[in-house]
From TrEMBL:
PANTHER family: GLYCOSYLTRANSFERASE, UDP-N-ACETYLGLUCOSAMINE--N-ACETYLMURAMYL-(PENTAPEPTIDE) PYROPHOSPHORYL-UNDECAPRENOL N-ACETYLGLUCOSAMINE TRANSFERASE 1. One of its GO terms (biological process) is regulation of cell shape. It comes from Thermocrinis ruber. The lineage of its organism: Bacteria, Pseudomonadati, Aquificota, Aquificia, Aquificales. This is UDP-N-acetylglucosamine--N-acetylmuramyl-(pentapeptide) pyrophosphoryl-undecaprenol N-acetylglucosamine transferase. The keyword Cell division applies.
């Protein structure tokens, strides 16, 4: 069996889900492992395979008591998984606390372990486990230096089938479906959970400009904005399972700089002004965004500098050079991440 683990936030879960979709297309049997309290539990209807949801808790950014609980939950979950792993099983983990138990169980059992690092600066989970892994798959050039050279393979980040399907639509079709006109269209999104800072900024932008737009607030902040755009051409959503349609309809984005968001924007050629989440572990969102800025596919501004007028100027700069920015950001999207991952797994597949 091939076990795929990843979760906690959408950023860890969605690429794991995307890989599972590819594995199934090739009739490779697999199972998913995630966390009971992670986003993967809520979105488990998207999983086309059996999922095991562990009672495991996050470690970073928690109080000392919560950290103890987290460590206990990680070790007890690993011990729970251990007897389930057979020697011929292979594990691929996508980082985060939700995937650590499978990683540890695989190390203890001595079964082949593969890692995918989504970000430019690795998670502690992946860095710890990399010494035991057969290969480490990465999305960003910048992250290569954190792992043993001989193990790193730059594959890019797998993207879910539902997201790729949106590419079949034209911009006009997508806008018609969303009831949007052909005016410049701004997408504002703060990753899988939304971002209060971007939500406030978005409201100011839409009030002051004649951008039409899509504003994804995140579930927690939706109440504040759901009626805020009366008589304005702004579609406000808490969360959508149809991001492909949204990306297709938009000309540019104001966004956090999570790895999946960046990869998806790149796939759709939507350039962005990135305001990285300032408290992301080891500031990884800033380095993610910097790689895109380096390619010419977007601009980056620190949250503390992101006041309305500066942001408007930068958005205007992107909009007036949209074609070049758009072409440049597409260079980041790797054409076939799943294929590259499967090629690396190939020598282990006969073990089934
Ligand atoms: C605050 C923080 O630390 N965030 C991290 C978290 O991000 P986060 O979970 O926010 O993840 P990403 O930005 O990578 O991805 C967001 C995902 O949510 C999806 N989406 C979003 C809104 C919506 O309405 N519908 C929807 O499906 C997007 O299509 C995308 O696939 O994990 C990522 C992967 O390790 C990191 O790069 C991010 O830095």
């Amino acid at each position: 069996m091939l076990y795929v683990a990843g979760g906690g936030t959408g950023g860890h879960f969605f690429p794991a889900l995307a890989l599972i979709e590819c594995l199934l297309e090739r009739e490779i049997p697999c199972k998913f492992v995630g966390a009971e309290r992670g986003i993967e539990r809520k979105l488990s209807h998207l999983l086309p395979v059996e999922g095991k949801f562990l009672k495991v808790y996050p470690f970073f950014g928690r109080s000392p008591v919560e950290k103890l609980r987290s460590l206990y939950s990680i070790f007890s979950s690993s011990l729970f998984l251990l007897p389930k792993l057979e020697r011929k099983d292979v594990s691929i983990i996508f980082g985060g606390y939700a995937s650590l138990p499978l990683g540890l169980a695989s190390v203890l059992r001595g079964t082949p372990l593969f890692l995918h690092e989504q970000n430019s600066i690795p998670s502690t989970t992946n860095q710890l486990l990399s010494r035991f892994a057969k290969r480490v798959f990465v999305s960003f050039e910048y992250s290569k230096k954190f792992f043993p050279k001989e193990k790193v393979v730059k594959t890019g980040l797998p993207v879910r089938r539902a997201l790729i399907d949106g590419l079949k639509l034209s911009k006009e079709q997508a806008r018609a479906l969303l009831n949007l006109s052909d005016k410049p269209t701004l997408l504002v999104m703060g990753g899988s959970q939304g971002a209060v800072f971007l939500n406030n900024l978005a409201f100011e932008i839409f009030k002051k400009t004649d951008f039409q737009g899509v504003h994804i607030t995140g579930e927690k902040d939706y109440e504040r904005f759901k009626d805020a755009y009366k008589n304005m051409p702004v579609l406000v959503l808490p969360f959508t399972e149809n991001m492909g349609l949204i990306y297709r309809a938009c000309d540019l984005a104001l966004s956090r700089a999570g790895a999946s968001t960046i990869t998806e924007l790149s796939l759709y050629g939507v350039p962005a002004l990135f305001v990285p989440f300032p408290h992301a572990i080891r500031d990884h969102q800033y380095y993610n965004a910097k790689e895109i800025e380096g390619l010419g596919g977007g601009l980056v501004i620190r949250q503390e500098e992101a006041e309305l007028n500066t942001v408007l100027k930068l958005l205007e700069k992107i909009l007036s050079n949209r074609e070049e920015f758009s072409k440049a950001i597409t260079r980041f999207a790797d054409q076939n991440p799943c294929e590259k991952i499967l090629n690396s797994l190939q020598e282990f597949l006969p073990r089934y």
